[in-house]
Amino acid sequence: MASVIDMISFALLAAGGFCVFVGGVGVLRLPDLYTRMHAASITDTAGPLLVLAGLALQAGWSLALFKLAVILVFLAVTAPTAAYALGNAALVSGYRPAVVSDESGATDSEGEGHA
Amino acid sequence: MRALGLFLVFALVWLLLSGLMKPLVLGLGVVSCLLCVWLASRMHRVEEDAGPALRPLHLLAYLPWLLKEVVLANLQVMRVVLSPRMALDPVLFRLRATQRSQLCKVIYGNSITLTPGTLTLDVDGETMLVHALERAGAEALRSGEMDRRASALEASA
Fold this sequence. Notes:
The complex is a heterodimer. By secondary structure, chain A is an all-alpha fold. Chain A contains 4 helices and 1 strand; from the N terminus they run H-H-H-H-E. Helices cover 73% and strands 3% of the residues of chain A. Chain A: Keywords: Membrane, Transmembrane, Transmembrane helix.
């Protein structure tokens, strides 16, 4: 029974590692900051989700399980907040997306400079 | 009163995370919690209203739904990243946010960002500026399902 749990745990950890790897590949391949942030968010979501699930199976019903759950909750709150801070900072400092259909409408200063 | 509640929450989190009952550790815990309450009060977060209560049942329904969306979006973005030619079609667009409270707007904006492929860049009153990696992601948000679900978290006035 324990070995079945170990195998599931192994699969989850491996899948999580793969997701983080793909996120890294995306950060390298995609053309500009905004599109790269989409790839980075794989590393923030699917990666930790799978890795923490794999670790949770190893932890069993213990204090460690609670801690893993808390890590997941903190990540779910802080990751998008940090992503917003980064994206918003790029936008405010005038960095325009490289390849984009701009459908935001030039209603204010942020709309400037779109083709 | 709020400061006391905050202190109790911090203390509970400390106890659960440390699990050690040594006097030195507990003493450090008390000092840390007091420090955090002091910092929070300096940020004027203690006196302020924490926002409206969320409807627990809707939140219970929202989280699994969001998890499903996040997983699907992950697969979608991974497909784009790993495809040999990466046919990109990013869209920058404005989206209406119908939530009344700040808290639910934050939940909506963060849900958009948490879902790979869509990224909230700016919030201006009732509209959000969103960058999507693909047109499909933009259309999914425009359909308004996530907006509706995030709004449903608010207790009806």
